[in-house]
Write a structure and sequence with these properties.
Length: 440
């Protein structure tokens, strides 16, 4: 009997270990199930807190689950599946009226009343820009400026031209389809852009996000597929690729060493990084009435200016960067769930995916990439790598960059991709906002 008891105990421990080895996001499966049951029971009994506690539970549970599913579906995982599910599923649940009312109240309070999305944007913008190596920022942008400029002009021209063929107004195509594609993603691009458009036009932010999101998603899919094709071209034509090196002079490797990846985690500095992120958002709000430019856009500009001027101490920049990494790793899918539930209309989303709309998105991204590919010849760059980095200009932020570079097996190009996405995207958001304000 004793032997049987020991064997039974060992079997239970083995099963528990096996279950604990499975994870939903960063959480072990048993813990995830326990938290989910507690949250569902609280909602069913109308005891779910209608504040950030309840909201965080709903957002993070849904975000981790949908992100995990999207990251595991073959093929789909390589085209931004996690982000797509996090946006589309909550939108569909609301559209078909199957979302629990108590969960919806907590989610709404967290996203709209507490403005969690603004805190998320602040941490992303401040940390992503301040956390970049000054050397990478200056030298990388110098190298990428011409391909980005030529590619952006070609992408805008192609997108607007194809839009006109399908009966779209040029201004609509530019502001609501092309700009979201090259705006640097959802967190760093579409969110501040939608806030700016809302202030200028006096339209609800939710309506604007529903118009902007589909273009960014489609653009990211096209960029990922195109990067895979560029990898294939490099294999067939070895003289066109540097196998992960952008510039033919061969000094990219030294430049790419400078980053915060290997810096030890400092909890205290993360606190200062959070405060700095808040300060940038407040600074934007303070300057907005004086300049007439929306606060989120001024936040981006001020972060870039202070970074280039080296005004903020390196330790504080590291804190902002580590806070950005924490927020992006743990809250990105949660924020996408909130956006999908509250800001992305399922009806408008489905209506957006017409043949003409898809053609505009594809033409914009392909023109961007092809321009980056061919202009490399005149800039002492490898065409394949130049095309891939330029493709990141149409990615879904950092997540899109990872997907694009993974599809092409060029993860070493990440610093250049970040220049393309962050700085290139920020410049496009600022430019679009100023143009919208001028022409409105």
């Amino acid at each position: 009997m004793q032997t049987i008891s020991i064997t039974s105990s060992d079997a239970k421990q083995s099963i528990w270990k096996k279950l604990s080895s499975y994870k939903v996001g960063p959480i072990s499966l048993p813990v995830y199930i326990t938290v989910a049951i507690i949250t569902v029971l609280a909602a069913y009994n109308k005891r779910l807190p209608n504040d950030m506690i309840g909201g965080f539970a709903v957002l993070m549970l849904a975000g981790f689950l949908l992100g995990e599913i999207g990251a595991r579906i073959p093929v789909f995982k390589h085209i931004g599946g996690a982000a797509i599910l996090c946006l589309f599923v909550p939108s569909a649940l609301i559209g078909y009226k199957v979302m629990d009312a108590e969960m919806m109240k907590a989610l709404t309070t967290t996203m709209k009343t507490a403005n969690l999305q603004y805190l998320y944007i602040s941490c992303l913008v401040a940390g992503s820009i301040l956390g970049m190596s000054h050397k990478v920022l200056v030298q990388g942008f110098t190298r990428m400026f011409v391909p980005l400029l030529v590619g952006t002009i070609a992408g805008v021209a192609a997108g607007v031209s194809v839009g006109m063929l399908f009966g779209y107004e040029p201004a609509h195509t530019f502001f609501y389809i092309v700009i979201p594609i090259v705006g640097g993603g959802i967190g760093e691009g579409i969110l501040p852009l939608s806030i700016a458009y809302s202030e200028i036009l006096g339209k609800p932010q939710a309506d604007l996000i529903a118009m902007l999101v589909p273009a960014a998603l489609l653009g990211n899919v096209v960029a990922i597929l195109a990067s895979g094709v560029l990898k294939w071209i490099g294999e067939k034509k070895p003289h066109l690729t540097g196998n992960g090196i952008l510039v033919k002079s061969g000094n990219d490797e030294e430049l790419l060493k400078t980053d915060h990846v290997n810096d030890p985690l400092d909890i205290g500095l993360m606190g200062s990084g959070l405060l700095i992120a808040c300060a940038f958002f407040i600074l934007g709000s303070l300057l907005a009435p004086v300049t007439g430019i929306p606060g989120p856009i001024l936040m981006i500009v001020s972060a870039a200016v202070l970074k280039v001027a080296r005004v903020i101490p390196p330790k504080m920049e590291l804190g902002a960067y580590q806070m950005y990494k924490f927020v992006s790793a743990n809250l990105t899918f949660a924020i996408l769930v909130g956006l999908g539930a509250l800001f992305v209309s399922w009806k408008d989303l489905m209506h957006a995916f017409s043949f003409g709309y898809v053609a505009i998105c594809a033409a914009t991204v392909l023109a961007l990439i092809v321009s980056g590919f061919f202009v490399a010849t005149f800039l002492n760059m490898y065409p394949v790598e130049s095309g891939i980095v330029t493709a990141c200009h149409s990615g879904l932020g950092g997540t899109g960059d990872v997907a694009i570079l993974s599809a092409s097996y060029r993860m070493g190009l990440m610093p250049f991709a970040q220049i393309s996405t962050r700085i290139g995207g920020a410049m496009m958001i600022v430019m679009a906002t100023l143009l919208m304000k001028f022409f409105h």
